[in-house]
Amino acid sequence: MRNFELVGKEINFVELDNVMVQNGFYSVFDDGITKDIKQDKSVVYIHKATDKQLALFFEITEDNEADEVEEAFYLIVTSTQEV
Fold this sequence. Notes:
This protein has helices at 3-6, 13-22, 34-40, and strands spanning 10-12, 42-46, 53-63, 73-82. With 83 residues, the protein is α+β, with helices and mostly antiparallel strands.
Protein backbone atom coordinates (compact mmCIF):
# COMPACT_ATOMS: atom_id res chain seq x y z
CA MET A 1 0.00 0.00 0.00
CA ARG A 2 1.48 3.31 -1.07
CA ASN A 3 1.09 6.40 1.10
CA PHE A 4 -1.48 8.00 -1.24
CA GLU A 5 -3.63 4.87 -0.89
CA LEU A 6 -3.89 5.60 2.83
CA VAL A 7 -5.63 8.95 2.39
CA GLY A 8 -9.30 8.65 3.26
CA LYS A 9 -8.92 5.20 4.81
CA GLU A 10 -10.09 4.39 8.32
CA ILE A 11 -7.60 2.14 10.05
CA ASN A 12 -6.50 1.08 13.51
CA PHE A 13 -3.20 2.70 14.51
CA VAL A 14 -1.55 -0.68 15.07
CA GLU A 15 -2.61 -1.76 11.57
CA LEU A 16 -1.30 1.52 10.14
CA ASP A 17 2.08 0.94 11.72
CA ASN A 18 2.13 -2.62 10.33
CA VAL A 19 1.33 -1.35 6.82
CA MET A 20 4.11 1.20 7.03
CA VAL A 21 6.61 -1.41 8.23
CA GLN A 22 5.58 -3.72 5.38
CA ASN A 23 6.33 -0.85 2.99
CA GLY A 24 9.87 -0.38 4.28
CA PHE A 25 9.44 2.16 7.06
CA TYR A 26 10.62 1.93 10.66
CA SER A 27 7.95 1.27 13.29
CA VAL A 28 7.10 4.19 15.54
CA PHE A 29 6.19 1.90 18.45
CA ASP A 30 9.87 1.58 19.29
CA ASP A 31 9.92 5.29 20.06
CA GLY A 32 7.13 5.20 22.66
CA ILE A 33 5.56 8.38 21.32
CA THR A 34 1.96 7.26 20.82
CA LYS A 35 0.59 9.86 23.26
CA ASP A 36 2.32 12.67 21.31
CA ILE A 37 1.11 11.23 18.00
CA LYS A 38 -2.48 11.23 19.25
CA GLN A 39 -2.17 14.79 20.53
CA ASP A 40 -0.54 16.11 17.32
CA LYS A 41 -2.79 14.02 15.03
CA SER A 42 0.23 13.29 12.87
CA VAL A 43 3.07 10.83 12.68
CA VAL A 44 6.35 10.81 10.76
CA TYR A 45 7.74 7.58 9.36
CA ILE A 46 11.32 7.14 8.12
CA HIS A 47 12.01 4.84 5.19
CA LYS A 48 14.70 2.25 5.98
CA ALA A 49 16.43 2.28 2.58
CA THR A 50 16.26 5.97 1.69
CA ASP A 51 15.90 7.78 5.05
CA LYS A 52 13.10 9.81 3.43
CA GLN A 53 10.51 10.96 5.90
CA LEU A 54 6.79 10.72 5.30
CA ALA A 55 4.34 12.60 7.51
CA LEU A 56 0.81 11.26 7.86
CA PHE A 57 -1.93 13.56 9.12
CA PHE A 58 -5.15 12.12 10.49
CA GLU A 59 -8.34 12.58 12.48
CA ILE A 60 -9.12 10.19 15.31
CA THR A 61 -12.45 8.47 14.71
CA GLU A 62 -12.55 6.20 17.75
CA ASP A 63 -10.38 6.43 20.83
CA ASN A 64 -10.79 3.73 23.43
CA GLU A 65 -9.54 5.89 26.29
CA ALA A 66 -10.76 3.37 28.84
CA ASP A 67 -8.54 0.77 27.18
CA GLU A 68 -5.15 0.44 28.80
CA VAL A 69 -3.47 0.11 25.40
CA GLU A 70 -2.41 3.56 24.20
CA GLU A 71 -2.31 2.39 20.57
CA ALA A 72 -5.95 1.21 20.60
CA PHE A 73 -7.49 3.92 18.46
CA TYR A 74 -8.87 4.29 14.95
CA LEU A 75 -8.08 7.10 12.57
CA ILE A 76 -8.71 8.38 9.07
CA VAL A 77 -5.64 9.56 7.19
CA THR A 78 -6.42 13.04 5.84
CA SER A 79 -3.16 13.73 4.00
CA THR A 80 0.46 12.74 3.56
CA GLN A 81 3.55 14.84 2.93
CA GLU A 82 7.23 14.14 2.36
CA VAL A 83 9.38 16.06 4.84
